[in-house]
Amino acid sequence: MAVLLALASAALYGIVDFAGGLLSRRVHFAVVTLLGQVGGLLLALVVALLVPAPDVRLPDVLWGALSGVGSGVAMTYLNRGLSRGSMTVVVPVSAVTGVALSVLCGVLLLGDRPAGAAWLGICVTAPALWLVSGGGGARPTVDGAGSAGAGNRTGPAELRTGAASDGLIASLGVAVQYLGLAQAGAESGVWPVVAGRAAAVVLLLPGLWRHAGRFRQPPEVWGKAAAIGAGAAIALILYLWAAQRQMLSVVVVLASLYPAVPTILGLTLLHERVTTRQTVGLVSAAIAVVLLTLG
Question: Are 192 and 70 in contact (CB under 8 A)?
Answer without folding.
Answer: no
